[in-house]
Amino acid sequence: MLFVFLLIVLPKPRGNFAFTSGYADMYNRLESKVIAWHESEITRIENDDDSVRASIRLLLARGKASGN
């Protein structure tokens, strides 16, 4: 994701000029977007993991029900 790359490359805002020029605000918004993106990816992965675990439990239950 481009935002992650930018956050890595851009220096952290320091000093009064960063705040008066708007750089700090832009950096903080960018950081918030990166955090939100990571949270959505974690949620997606957790949902996929839950689905896989449910499928495995179903297969195991079917195996026990059929006597295997």
What does this structure look like?
It is built from three helices and no strands. With about 70 residues, the protein is an all-alpha fold. Helix 1 (about 1-10) crosses helix 3. The termini are far apart. The mean pLDDT is about 90.
Question: Helices and strands in order, then pairings?
Answer:
Elements: H1 2-9, H2 15-20, H3 23-65
Q: Give the overall shape, derived from the CA principal axes.
A: rod-shaped
In what range is the share of β-strand residues? under 5%
Q: Count every helix, treating DSSP H or I runs of 4 or more residues as helices.
A: 3
Order of helices and strands: HHH
Mean pLDDT: 89
| Unreliable segments of 5+ consecutive residues | none
Give a short account of the largest sheet: none
Estimated structural class = mainly alpha
Instruction: Please tally the β strands and state the result.
Output: 0
Distance between the termini: 46 Å
Helix coverage percent of residues? over 70%
Rg result:
22 Å
Any key phrases for this structure?
single chain; 68 residues; mainly alpha
